[in-house]
Amino acid sequence: MDYAELANTIRRWGTELGFQQLGIAGTDLGEDETHLLNWLDAGHHGEMDYMQRHGTKRSRPQELQPGTLRVISVRMDYAPPGIANGWDVLQDAQRGYVARYALGRDYHKLMRNRLQQLADRIAAQTGPFGYRAFVDSAPVLERAIARNAGLGWIGKHSCLINRSAGSWFFLGELYTDLPLPADAPASAHCGRCTRCIDICPTRAIVAPYQVDARRCISYLTIELHGGIPLEFRRAIGNRIYGCDDCQLICPWNKFAQASAEADFAPRHRLDGAGLVELFDWSEEEFLRRTEGSAIRRIGHERWLRNIAVALGNAPATPEIMAALQRRAVHPSELVREHVRWALEEQARRAGGEV
């Protein structure tokens, strides 16, 4: 078997299957394992216990999938064309900001299917081989692997950045026992830029390449199950599911390409819908409108929690006050507490207090 030729063929198949780039990495992640362990020791993972539950499987691919020799890493652009400008939405406090990756259908199934098709094509060429596909679905250091596969470098905000495509893309992996030639790792090009650090609303990027998830709005609105700490509520603004500020400000994203995947197009005007409209969704409506969406995983209760905070940060209007009062007797204490806070903020703002 000419594995160099096979690798080139796999890259061509990757393009045919809709991936914008495909690279091949080895399995040595020693330095990244040290970085991960230090991050966990500092408690920066917050309530994400799964980050340490699997031990070293995350940084040692052979432990996760025995026999792994190489990792095929792929990326897929996800920013759909024609969506509402992110900065415009953030500056309109009566609209809800949803992280751009979550505007359309959930990417996991789409990318897993494409990776499975890639594996099927490889098997047709090589015969049966060992592999396992992952799309943010197992303990995988996907950004470190993608960097080693030449897909980009890990920026100071911890996202992967590609020189010609920015950072608006998903990652996926195919662990394999094929001894394919590995690509050269990508070099870093953040230089002295600290825009992502400077713009973070909650100062979650505590140092270059170090994010304290406990302060991160994406963590607070998606991963955190309880109440959002008071110290961060005003800084959250109108971000109701995730946060993109560090990517919106990144100069490399001037090279980002719009996604041609129809599944990633915004659903239900989520690229800038009104907060009151979203807050009025019943649980049944929430489940129906978020079917097949990454948003559904937080559930209706946390959806209302997040929007209550955003409404507390919105201008004082009778419509907003009425929407909050309608939820003031919600069965969930989590929702009621955040509504009470929002009503107090609205009253303070209506009274002219800063």
Automatic annotation (TrEMBL):
The keyword Cytoplasm applies. It is found in: Cytoplasm. Its EC number is 1.17.99.6. [4Fe-4S] cluster 1 binds at C190, C193, C196, C250. The keyword Membrane does not apply. Keywords: 4Fe-4S, Cobalamin, Cobalt, Cytoplasm, Iron, Iron-sulfur, Metal-binding, Oxidoreductase, Queuosine biosynthesis, tRNA processing. Its cofactor is cob(II)alamin; [4Fe-4S] cluster. Binds 2 [4Fe-4S] clusters per monomer. Cob(II)alamin binds at R58, D136, L160, L171, S218, C243, D244. One of its GO terms (molecular function) is epoxyqueuosine reductase activity. Its main location: cytoplasm. InterPro entries: 4Fe4S_Fe-S-bd (IPR017896), 4Fe4S_Fe_S_CS (IPR017900), QueG (IPR004453), QueG_DUF1730 (IPR013542). The active site is at D136. [4Fe-4S] cluster 2 binds at C200, C216, C243, C246. It catalyses: epoxyqueuosine(34) in tRNA + AH2 = queuosine(34) in tRNA + A + H2O. It comes from the Bacteria. Pathway: tRNA modification; tRNA-queuosine biosynthesis. It holds the Pfam family Fer4_16. Residues 178-210 form the 4Fe-4S ferredoxin-type domain. Monomer. NCBIfam families: tRNA epoxyqueuosine(34) reductase QueG. Belongs to the QueG family. Catalyzes the conversion of epoxyqueuosine (oQ) to queuosine (Q), which is a hypermodified base found in the wobble positions of tRNA(Asp), tRNA(Asn), tRNA(His) and tRNA(Tyr). This is Epoxyqueuosine reductase.
